[in-house]
Amino acid sequence: MASQALHFLNPTYSAPTRSLSSPSKPLLLAQSPRRVRPISAISSDIDSSSSSPSVMISGNGKGGIFGGDGTAAAAAVADVSGIEVDAVTEAELKENGFRSTRRTKLVCTIGPATCGFEQLEALAVGGMNVARINMCHGTRDWHRRVIERVRRLNEEKGYAVAIMMDTEGSEIHMGDLGGAASAARAEDGEIWTFSVRAFDSPLPEQTINVNYEGFAEDVKVGDDLLVDGGMVRFEVIEKIGPDVKCRCTDPGLLLPRANLTFWRDGSLVRERNAMLPTISSKDWLDIDFGISEGVDFIAISFVKSAEVIRHLKSYIAARSRDSDIAVIAKIESVDSLKNLEEIIRASDGAMVARGDLGAQIPLEQVPSAQQKIVQLCRQLDRPVIVASQLLESMIEYPTPTRAEVADISEAVRQRADALMLSGESAMGQYPEKALTVLRSVSLRIEKWWREEKRQEAMVLPEISSSFADSISEEICNSAAKMVAGNGKHSGNGVTMGLGTTLCGLRLCSTHVLECLRSSWLVSSIVIEAHLADNLEVDAIFVYTKTGQMASLLSRCRPDCPIFAFTTTTSVRRRLNLQWGLIPFRLNFSDDMESNLNRTFFLLKARGMIQSGDLVIAVSDMLQSIQVMNVP
Ligand SMILES: Nc1ncnc2c1ncn2[C@@H]1O[C@H](COP(=O)(O)OP(=O)(O)OP(=O)(O)O)[C@@H](O)[C@H]1O
Ligand SMILES: CC(=O)C(=O)O
Ligand SMILES: [K+]
Ligand SMILES: [Mg+2]
């Protein structure tokens, strides 16, 4: 076995990000001095006094924004600690350079195995971007304590771990197993009773409580009853009042609160589920809890239509005027697939919840559903999480199966925003090792595909609904195209020195938009063709108050990381779910020149960037795009 490639299999392997004290290597790209002509700038400025907005493109071609007297840089000197980023990101940047940062984000479900402060910290060190709490389990007090610990971790150590609250939903599931039992095993041929009666704990032998009153009425003798989408299977043999007697036909482990589905003549019986509300009364109480705790994301289980998402969003908006809780639609039912596009458009993101999805559609259809959801989310600019069973075997074993590694690779190759651990981190024996596998495989596959330049191009439809938004969108598309490596413009002479060419030009905005649309700014002004091959942009910097422009850049999946600067901690946390974004919190003004000087100063002081690094900077305040070397 190749020990290097599979270093995560080595129990003594420790992630590179953990050796925070090791001396930082110089940034990869700073080692080879660039021959690109320094600093050129294009900035556009919407003239708000004009009824038909005009855009000014300007640049001085002689040192661009750094040609001044350096007062902005001097002003920044006063505040070295004025930027918020976590130690892990900082160490990763210093050690591996820009290009090798991980683009795929990682979500960990928190449960009994990981709810302590130290365990949470170990996950943050291991690369957790989002902590998920599942309201199917535990009490609100338990979840509150987890939220408090994550918040403390963020405050004390500078992390931006976001919190995602996942609702229980009102699908049919088993109750707890009673007493101290955390699981029970059903053997082939055993007769178990599924009942809606209330029992005292412990439950009678081979008895399972069902949460849904209509259960005994709805099932028929001869139906197949599937626990967790088929992990255990029973056949209904007799109905006696509230009790349903079933014979085990596929043995396996019964876990508390596992999902139940029943099948008749080879198809899922869904009439009753269709009548249950997506958000139950208990879910509404949990949502109130989430709003008052200020969670970053609320994930809604078993979404059937866009309507429920719109309803929840207006509920959240009315309850918390200044909060920006994002709503994630969990795609895990037949109905959610039917109404997929409408649901994604109404949501702030989606989750491919393969656990329940695989119980509702034939398993062999799950991979194509996953690919479709991931693609659609990217096209519509919504973050997407691939969830469930990525490393299921690691609940019990310290190493993954080869098939699990291949499954992770596929999700990374599809360039999903995030991968999620469920039982592996909530109650498994090796939560940190599982996270290390996710991280190592993500990094390796991302690097492999960048080197091979084999990413398929994806058509990104225009999604903006307003004029201002469409300028932002075009700017982001153009910035991403300028990043060498995506193949579109290599060999086409990517332009530097735009400032000289465009100095003093004042163009109406539609003209600029047209130019951007045809990538005129990028490819039609060839200054020195031989420079083109050298234009390897190290990072895109985006200054964004709402996060929207960072999201638009992430959507393009450019070849370099995106440093997203934003003024609020909540936007910073939210951006932590999205592909390729390295979110920082920074106070900034509308003056891009001083913002850039300040950022360069702060990041250089911390060794995160170096003079000569090539950066494209965009901003949603000025809707500008600038190309420059770090001075
Ligand atoms: N807060 C918790 N307390 C106790 N156990 C938990 C908790 N959260 C998760 N678990 C355990 O981890 C397992 C997997 O958790 P997870 O939340 O991912 O379930 P899931 O079935 O994939 O999600 P969903 O219920 O949303 O479909 C659960 O079956 C449960 O045993
Ligand atoms: C995550 C989840 O809800 C599922 O896979 O079913
Ligand atoms: K759930
Ligand atoms: Mg589910």
TrEMBL record:
Identify one Gene Ontology CC term for this UniProt entry.
Answer: chloroplast stroma
Q: Report keywords, A-Z.
A: ATP-binding, Glycolysis, Kinase, Magnesium, Metal-binding, Nucleotide-binding, Pyruvate, Transferase
Instruction: Describe the location of the Pyruvate kinase C-terminal domain by residue ranges.
Output: 530-621
Catalysed reactions, semicolon-separated: pyruvate + ATP = phosphoenolpyruvate + ADP + H(+)
According to the UniProt entry, its GO molecular function terms are: ATP binding; kinase activity; magnesium ion binding; potassium ion binding; pyruvate kinase activity
Q: Which residues form the Pyruvate kinase barrel domain?
A: 102-434
> Which SUPFAM superfamilies does this one have?
Phosphoenolpyruvate/pyruvate domain, PK beta-barrel domain-like, PK C-terminal domain-like
* Cofactor(s) it depends on: Mg(2+); K(+)
Its pathway is: Carbohydrate degradation; glycolysis; pyruvate from D-glyceraldehyde 3-phosphate: step 5/5
* E.C. no: 2.7.1.40
InterPro entries, per database record: Pyr_Knase (IPR001697), Pyrv/PenolPyrv_kinase-like_dom (IPR015813), Pyrv_kinase-like_dom_sf (IPR040442), Pyrv_Knase-like_insert_dom_sf (IPR011037), Pyrv_Knase_AS (IPR018209), Pyrv_Knase_brl (IPR015793), Pyrv_Knase_C (IPR015795), Pyrv_Knase_C_sf (IPR036918)
Q: Describe the family membership recorded for this protein in Swiss-Prot or TrEMBL.
A: Belongs to the pyruvate kinase family.
Which NCBIfam families would you find in this protein's record?
A: pyruv_kin
Q: What is this protein called?
A: Pyruvate kinase
The source organism is Stephania yunnanensis
